[in-house]
Automatic annotation (TrEMBL):
<feature type="compositionally biased region" description="Basic and acidic residues">
    <location>
        <begin position="263"/>
        <end position="273"/>
    </location>
</feature>
<dbReference type="InterPro" id="IPR016181">
    <property type="entry name" value="Acyl_CoA_acyltransferase"/>
</dbReference>
<dbReference type="InterPro" id="IPR000182">
    <property type="entry name" value="GNAT_dom"/>
</dbReference>
<feature type="domain" description="N-acetyltransferase">
    <location>
        <begin position="109"/>
        <end position="252"/>
    </location>
</feature>
<protein>
    <recommendedName>
        <fullName>N-acetyltransferase domain-containing protein</fullName>
    </recommendedName>
</protein>
<feature type="region of interest" description="Disordered">
    <location>
        <begin position="246"/>
        <end position="298"/>
    </location>
</feature>
<dbReference type="GO" id="GO:0016747">
    <property type="term" value="F:acyltransferase activity, transferring groups other than amino-acyl groups"/>
</dbReference>
<dbReference type="Pfam" id="PF00583">
    <property type="entry name" value="Acetyltransf_1"/>
</dbReference>
Length: 328
């Protein structure tokens, strides 16, 4: 495993690295000081080797986000080497846009870019979205710039009377990839086709901006949203998973006087002192994708690396299909 930090910055700096064998890069990863770890596809052996190295560096990981098999392999290895518990938080599906197919009929109204005068409405809807997906984040005028929502370009779908009824956001195009997130319609406006219409608007805009791949994540358990995006032309690429890590509780120990005390947590002692969990602890549908702790209020690279993770997942699936065709 290689990482990009200098010795002077190995306590609090982000870890960006790769897994290599015989001089060939086999996978990449990133870990932010206040967040979890994101991984490109790795074999169980590679995931295990990475867990050993990160545990040796004293990393404290609140969660892992990766394709289903990689996440499971790393979670199993991290439990063993870091002495923590692991539980699936959410299962996701990564989609890539094929042929964009607008809904028929298109609901009445139009899409328009969100402007500065829409800030209060935008923040309100982002708060409601975060609550819906159980994302613990404070969104107001004072915190907005530091949230993952601030770097996106948003579109509202408006009714014929000019009333916003739905919104969608999209990340800037990086490395040829744009991610649609979030998509939100207030409960009182749902069931009228607005989410599909506004998703088409931002997807088309991302393509016009030069995106080679437009991607989004859905909660695998939400059959409604999965069916909607497939009707719009989004194609399933891979299953995704987020595992949360928890430290075991101290076990009570009896004393000679009959009282009970707690024994220090040996698993925790094996880890270096860890920062508090990130304020935006994802319980959603990136990753989050990109909803998985990717925002940094001062540096843009977390989103870039996350999109690179998406790109690697897309490439990995394409390679698998190609090999399958050749062997058949």
């Amino acid at each position: 495993m290689n990482d990009t930090r200098t010795p002077a910055h190995r306590t609090h700096a982000p870890v960006l690295g790769w897994v290599e064998r015989a001089g060939e890069v086999r996978g990449t990863f990133y870990h932010l000081p206040s967040g979890g770890i994101g991984l490109t596809p790795l074999s169980p052996a590679q995931a295990g080797a990475l867990a050993v190295r990160l545990a040796g560096l004293g990393c404290s990981l609140p969660y892992v986000s990766a394709d289903r098999d990689t996440a499971a392999a790393f979670a199993k290895a991290w439990q063993r080497h870091a002495g923590v518990g692991a539980a699936v938080r959410v299962r996701l599906c990564l989609y890539r846009l094929g042929e964009l197919t607008p809904p028929r009929p298109v609901p009445a109204g139009r899409g328009r870019l969100v402007g500065e005068g829409d800030r209060e409405q935008l923040m309100s809807w982002c708060r409601e979205f975060a609550a819906d997906v159980e994302e613990d984040v404070t969104i107001d005028a004072g915190t907005w710039a530091g949230t993952r929502f601030a770097r996106k370009r948003y579109t509202f779908w408006e009714s014929p009377g000019g009333v916003p009824v739905s919104m969608a956001g999209v990340n800037p195009v990086l490395a040829g990839v744009a991610q649609v997130d979030p998509v939100y319609t207030p409960a009182r406006f749902r069931g009228r086709g607005y989410a599909g219409a506004v998703t088409v608007e931002v997807s088309r805009a991302a393509q016009a901006a030069g995106a080679e791949s437009v991607v989004l994540f859905t909660n695998a358990a939400n059959t409604t949203s999965n069916a909607l995006y497939q009707r719009l032309g989004y194609v399933p690429v891979t299953d995704w998973a987020v595992y949360d890590f928890t430290r075991p509780r101290p076990r009570p120990q009896p004393r000679s006087d009959g009282a009970v005390t707690s024994r220090p947590d040996r698993g925790r002692a094996r880890e270096a002192a860890a920062p508090d969990p990130p304020p935006a602890r994802r319980r959603q549908s990136a990753p989050p994708i990109g909803r998985e702790g990717l925002s940094s209020p001062t540096e843009p690279f977390p989103v870039f690396v996350h999109l690179q993770v998406c790109r690697c997942a897309l490439t990995s699936r394409a390679d698998s299909k190609s090999k399958g065709t050749e062997s058949s």
